[in-house]
Amino acid sequence: MEEKIKVLVIDDERGIRDMLSYALGKEGYIVFTAENGEIGIEKVKKEDIDVVITDIKMPGLDGVTVLGKIKEIKPNTEVIVATGYASMETAIESLRKGAYDYINKPFNINELSALVSKAYETKQLKSQLVSLKELDKLKDEFIAAVSHELKTPLMAISGAIELLLASEGVEDEENLQFKYDENTKKILEIIDRQTKKMRVLVNNILDFAKMEAGFFVLKKQKTSFIKIVNEAIKEVQSLAESKKIEITKQLPVEEDVTVNCDPDQIERVITNFLTNSIKYTQEGGKVSVSFEKTDNEVKLTVEDNGKGIDKENLEKVFERFYRVDQSLNRKESGAGLGLSICKKIIELHNGKIWAESEGLGKGSRFIFKLPIG
Ligand code: ADP
């Protein structure tokens, strides 16, 4: 045993205390003993006990009460209860109150020792999980705080650039005219484009942090699904044209579907699917949007004939910050957050989202299903 595990035995029978001290001590445990519940609880307060073995039936405090108190003082300490009368009821009550396990008296020492070792492993795993969760929370809070701080100056920069671009040729009070030479104009346009990208990124990170923390609220209303799809297509039209990609629509023959959803967020998901399809498809490629209605669901598919996704990455692309091409010199910009936000949005609507692809070079299909009602 590498680390010394501290075990406390609470039992009013001296014979049992001595026997366990000897047997567990021989196995490398540091063993403390207490002849009643009160003393046991005091020892738990003072020592960093990993595992407690407590008798159930003792004069003074009984084992179940002792268990409850220990869990209050040191919730991470694992407790094994020893039931003398093979009483199923007390055993179950102990488990309900947080006991790690129970063992019937008279017990086999090897069995008990194995149980102590498993209880200790569980305690270690739980504390690792707690520190990971705390770290994750800290990271989320940090990201949210930083993005919030970035948002204000970014808005100011965007506003200033827009003003500069719009004021060209406008006469001011002293009849001075702004006139930029070609290079200055190009540079301003670059700053404008990149600032817009950064704004989208910061907004995505902030929204994602809100979704993770459960603060993101949907604004649901009954909406025409065709309208949402058309808005999304309009949004990406110029990007598609810049890559000579044609977006085709295959909408259902029957009339429109009315869906109870947050239209802005569903449009965001479709826009994201479309932007990705355009981003990850070669010039002149094809992207199509289609949707169909079943009894109580609507299913939307965005399909492209672009670079495709290998099988092992089909689920991973929905993980936060995951990008199939991790290389720094990759062509397409992005943070790998888009699809994880889409997933959150669809899940908040109680829908399903997934990706399909026959493999690399064979195009992709991004699909979601939403309940209509
Ligand atoms: P981003 O595009 O910002 O990297 P996303 O979360 O939108 O982030 O997508 C995650 C990853 O999924 C992308 O980096 C890309 O590798 C892959 N991906 C998404 N859409 C497609 C698509 N239509 N074709 C091929 N790969 C895609």
Structural commentary:
The protein is of the alpha/beta class and 373 residues long. Helix content is 48%, strand content 18%. The protein has helices at 14-26, 37-46, 63-73, 88-96, 109-166, 182-213, 225-242, 263-279, 338-348; strands at residues 6-10, 30-34, 51-55, 78-83, 101-104, 221-224, 246-250, 258-261, 286-293, 297-304, 352-356, 364-371. Strands 2-1-3-4-5 form a five-stranded parallel beta sheet, sandwiched between helices. A five-stranded mixed beta sheet has the order 7-9-10-12-11. Helix 2 (37-46) packs parallel to helix 3 and helix 5 packs antiparallel against helix 6. The mean pLDDT is 88. Adenosine-5'-diphosphate binds next to helix 8 and helix 9. Adenosine-5'-diphosphate (ADP) binds at residues 272, 276-277, 280, 304, 306-307, 309, 317, 322-325, 334-340, 364.
